[in-house]
Amino acid sequence: MFKNIKAPSLNTALKASTVAGLAAAVFATGIPLEITRSYAEAVKVQAPSVPSFANVVDAVSPAVVSVRVENRVNPVADDEGNGFAFDFNGRGFDDLPDALKPFFRQFGEQGPQGQQGRRGPQGHHGPQDGKGRLRPVAQGSGFFISEDGYIVTNNHVVSDGAAFVAVMNDGTELDAKLIGKDPRTDLAVLKVDGKGRKFTYVNWADDNGVRVGDWVVAVGNPFGLGGTVTAGIVSARGRDIGSGPYDDYLQVDAAVNRGNSGGPTFNLSGEVVGINTAIFSPSGGNVGIAFAIPASTAKDVVADLMKDGQVSRGYLGVQIQPVTKDIADSLGLSEASGALVVSAQAGTPGEKAGMKAGDVVTAVNGETVKDARDLSRRIGAMTPGKKVELSVWRAGKAQSLTVELGTLPAEQKDASADDGDQAPESQAPASEKALADLGLTVGPSEDGKGLQITGIDPDSDAADKGIKEGEKITSVNNQEVSNADDVVKVLNQAKKDGRTRALFQIQSKEGSRFVALPINGQG
């Protein structure tokens, strides 16, 4: 029988060994030992070298301003559109208890165009007069583009303002006057009087060299905070967000919010590559999708505004639409590019030069036209009165036209056209002959021009392309048609020419458009 013996723990053994060793050392030397504790070093990681934006921010910040917009507000019904009058027995917002001000700021101070208005201690009120008093209604951002005080911002920031204040990064407030604005590109120019002061200003970048993935820095006034810097990259180029014919935005993922509108986006050289103008946001805040007007667009517009207070644009006077692959096939074009002319308004430069419906503008002064938006931008950027050479594709052949540009009317849409012949509300008697392979049933129109569409096969390509009963077919492959036999004749010729699609010009109440339909099997 073995006896169970409990062994000493390792910790106890080590302690005993250490004490014994120390005792032996003391007895051997006769010198007392100094006992010290040792500690491990703090964690320190050698981080990889990454770019810092501090130098850029230090250089450009003095050139960026907050733009406060003021308007005349009825003193009795101030802010009634927001649901709060801010008039409590003769007292205004400034007179409210401090505890209540955040509540009313949150729920009652959304200014026009999504900008958040500022009142209270940061704002100031103009003198009372018969038309009401000046009160801040919106705010945004801007930046100096010259040492003598010209400021660039967005049109939608200043559009509803009667007076403007530029707040510099050091807190200095300067009254500004509106020099000019351009709604089509959402740009505006203000001017402050520095009384001889020279302002720090920034230059435009060559945004042709901007690449997707490049670092950018946005500086502005989000939510009235002022002097806020965010960074990100260029996410995409050439974005069309449906705001107008000159859409060609840079998309960036730097945090941009309400109040950043009109503020600059810089490259790492401190040059302006774009002007923040819009965000995509289901929530109303930043989700990483912001759009900036490219420097190449802004540069020329701003120069015109500084010079004349307005922008004069070249004008053709034609309605255009994109060239799809189907339309390109129907016209015998090798690729889907250029701008398709839907109609030329009578008396306009385009009509005088001989432009016709069905023409495809493929180049301007020898430079290829990518699409309809590209043509609008090119013509709009030119000086009225200038002669330009247009390369057009007509009836399967390339031709050249010389056009002397007119001046775009101030209130006219860039791609507008006459309403033309409207489709009658009542359907014309149905024709005996149906273009069954196309899914169309047609009959004569009441005015004798073109063919009335009296029936649509819901499973046809025509229905898929949006053609509807009540609309008219005015031409096929740029040849006018007045009956179903005319249509079939044109389609048969197209098949002989090796075409697989035909180009139908459709007239509706909304205007005229081209639709390419397949013609295989049509006889």
From TrEMBL:
**GO molecular-function term, one example from the UniProt record:** serine-type endopeptidase activity
> Which residue positions are annotated as catalytic?
156 (charge relay system), 186 (charge relay system), 261 (charge relay system)
> Which compartments is it annotated to reside in?
Periplasm
Q: Which UniProt keywords apply?
A: Hydrolase, Periplasm, Protease, Repeat, Serine protease, Signal, Stress response
Known InterPro entries for this protein?
A: PDZ, PDZ_sf, Pept_S1C_Do, Peptidase_S1_PA, Peptidase_S1C
Its Gene Ontology cellular component terms are:
periplasmic space
Top EC category: hydrolase
Span of domain PDZ: 317-371, 425-494
Keyword Cytoplasm attached: no
Q: Where is the composition biased (Low complexity)?
A: 106-119
Q: What EC number(s) has UniProt assigned to this enzyme?
A: 3.4.21.107
According to its UniProt record, where is this protein mainly located?
periplasm
Entry keyword Protease: yes
For this chain's UniProt record, which GO biological process terms are given?
Answer: proteolysis
What SUPFAM superfamilies is this protein classified in? PDZ domain-like, Trypsin-like serine proteases
Gene3D superfamilies in the record, alphabetically? Answer: 2.30.42.10, 2.40.10.120
PANTHER family from the UniProt entry: SERINE PROTEASE FAMILY S1C HTRA-RELATED, SERINE PROTEASE HTRA2, MITOCHONDRIAL
Protein name according to UniProt = Probable periplasmic serine endoprotease DegP-like
Q: Which organism is it from?
A: Rhizobium altiplani
